[in-house]
Specification:
The protein contains 10 helices and 10 strands. By secondary structure, the protein is an alpha+beta fold. A hairpin with a 2-residue loop joins β2 and β3. The chain binds flavin-adenine dinucleotide (FAD).
C-alpha cells in the first residue's frame, strides 16, 4: 500500500493552496458580505487550469485524475466554500454529464470553453417538489417538429445564472416514467432564470430557480439514449459526492487551522488558551477526524480512477465528512469565543458555509439510504 501522493498531485496541492491563500483569502469576506459572484477569481482559476481538472486535454481540460480534483476542491474550501462550490458544481455537475454521456459532436461543441473555464455549466435536477426524491421530476420535454419543448421548473441550481453560464443540463420527463437529460443553452426563449437566491452560506456562489415555458431546444441536445436520465443522474451524483466530501475535509481543515492559530494567540488567565487541555483535546479530536475523513475521500477518488465501484465509498465519504465538518466548524468557533461570532472573523463564514454540506448532493439521510442499499438492506 502506498499513501504517497504523486509529484503532480503534490504540485497541484501547492499551486491551489498558494492561489487560495494569496488570491481568495483577502477577498472572501467581502465577496460573502456583498453576495458577489467571483468572476475575477474564476478567470484566474481558468488560467491555472482548475476549471476542467478531470476533463481530458483533448477537450480543453487538464486531464488529471479524480484524486487531484479532490485535492484542489479541498484546498479551495479550506479558504472559501463559495469559490470551491463554483468549481465543483461546474466540473462535477455542469461539465461531467456532457463528457460522460455526450456524443463526440456534443463534446466538441460544448466542452472546450467549459473545460477552459471561459464559460460555466450547471446541472438542474432538483425541483420545488422533487428534492431527495429526485426521480419525482415533473418538468416535461415533448418532441415537436425536431425540438424538445420544455415546460416546468428547477430549484436551487448552482452556476445557472452567471454572465458566463453557457448551459444547464436538466432532467425532464420525455415520456411516461421516462426521464432524459437535455442541454438547455442560456438565452433560449422560454428559459427564465430567477434573480440570485439569498442564502445562509455560499453567499458568493450563484444559486437560481429556473422556469421553462414552451422552451424549445434542438432534438440533438438530448444527452445519451432517451430514457437513460435516471441512471445518468445517479452516476453524476456518485461522482459529485466525492467533490462535496472533499469540501467537507477542506472546510474542517480550514476551521481547524483558524482555531489552532487563534488558540495560540488568545490569552486568558495569563496564558494562551492553547495551553488549556480542554482546548488541546478539541484540536486533537479535530485533527484525527480530519485525517480519517481525508482518507475516505481519497479512497473514493482512487476507486473511481481505478475504474472500480465507488458509489458506496463516495456516499460514506460524503456522510462522514458532512458530519465531521459540522463538528469541526462548531468546535473551532467555540475556541474563538465571542470573536468567532463576528463577521470579520473567517470562522463565522466557515460555520455558515458548513451546513449545506449535509444537504446538497443528497442529505445525510439520503447518504444513509444509499449506503444501506449497498449493504444489501
Ligand atoms: C445552495 C444550494 C445549491 C444547490 N445546487 C444544486 C444544483 O446545482 N443542482 C441541483 O439539481 N440541486 C441543487 N441543490 C439542491 C439540493 O441537492 C437539494 O436541496 C437536496 O437534494 C435536498 O432536497 P430538498 O431541499 O428538496 O429537501 P427534501 O428532499 O424535501 O428533504 C427535507 C428533509 O427530509 C429528509 N428526507 C427526505 N426523504 C427522506 C427519506 N426517504 N427518509 C428520511 N429522510 C428523508 C431529508 O433528508 C431532509 O432532512 C442545491 C441546494 C442548495 C441549498
Amino acid at each position: 500500500m502506498n499513501y504517497d501522493l504523486t509529484e503532480e498531485q503534490e504540485l497541484l496541492r501547492r499551486t491551489v493552496r498558494e492561489f487560495a491563500e494569496s488570491r481568495v483569502a483577502p477577498v472572501a469576506e467581502e465577496l460573502d458580505r456583498e453576495e458577489r459572484f467571483p468572476y475575477d477569481l474564476v478567470a484566474e482559476m481558468a488560467e491555472l487550469g482548475l476549471m476542467g481538472i478531470p476533463i481530458p486535454e483533448a477537450y480543453g481540460g487538464t486531464g488529471a485524475d479524480t484524486v487531484s480534483y479532490a485535492i484542489a476542491i479541498e484546498e479551495l474550501t479550506r479558504i472559501d466554500s463559495s469559490v470551491a462550490i463554483t468549481v465543483a458544481a461546474h466540473t462535477s455537475l455542469g461539465t461531467m454529464p456532457i463528457y460522460l454521456f455526450g456524443t463526440e459532436e456534443q463534446r466538441l461543441e460544448w466542452l472546450p470553453p467549459l473545460a477552459a473555464g471561459e464559460r460555466l455549466a450547471a446541472f438542474g435536477l432538483t425541483e420545488p417538489n422533487a428534492g431527495s426524491d429526485a426521480g419525482a421530476t415533473r418538468t416535461r420535454a415533448d418532441l415537436r417538429d425536431g425540438d424538445w419543448v420544455v415546460n416546468g421548473s428547477k430549484m436551487f441550481i448552482t452556476n445557472a445564472g452567471t454572465d458566463i453560464t453557457a448551459c444547464c443540463t436538466i432532467t425532464a420527463l420525455t415520456g411516461e416514467d421516462e426521464i432524459s437529460n437535455i442541454v438547455v443553452p442560456n438565452g433560449t426563449p422560454g428559459y427564465e432564470i430567477s434573480a440570485p437566491l439569498h442564502k445562509l452560506g455560499w453567499k458568493a456562489s450563484d444559486t437560481r430557480e429556473l422556469s421553462f415555458k414552451d422552451c424549445a431546444v434542438p432534438e440533438g441536445n438530448l444527452l445519451g439514449p432517451r430514457g437513460r436520465g435516471f441512471h445518468q443522474f445517479m452516476e453524476i451524483l456518485d461522482g459529485g459526492r466525492i467533490s462535496v466530501a472533499a469540501m467537507g475535509v477542506g472546510l474542517a481543515q480550514g476551521a481547524y487551522d483558524l482555531a489552532l492559530a487563534y488558540a495560540k494567540e488568545r490569552e486568558q488567565f495569563g496564558r494562551p488558551i492553547a495551553s488549556f487541555q480542554a482546548v488541546q483535546f478539541a484540536l486533537a479530536d479535530m485533527s484525527t477526524e480530519i485525517e480519517a475523513g481525508r482518507q475516505l475521500v481519497y479512497r473514493a477518488a482512487w476507486l473511481k480512477d481505478e475504474g472500480r465501484d465507488f458509489g458506496l465509498a463516495a456516499a460514506q465519504a460524503k456522510l462522514y465528512t458532512g458530519l465531521l465538518s459540522n463538528r469541526a466548524a462548531n468546535a473551532a468557533l467555540q475556541i474563538h469565543g465571542g470573536y468567532g461570532f463576528m463577521q470579520e472573523f473567517a470562522i463565522s463564514r466557515l460555520f455558515r458555509d458548513q451546513k449545506i454540506l449535509e444537504i446538497g448532493e443528497g442529505t445525510n439521510e439520503v447518504q444513509r439510504m444509499v449506503i444501506a442499499k449497498q449493504l444489501g438492506l
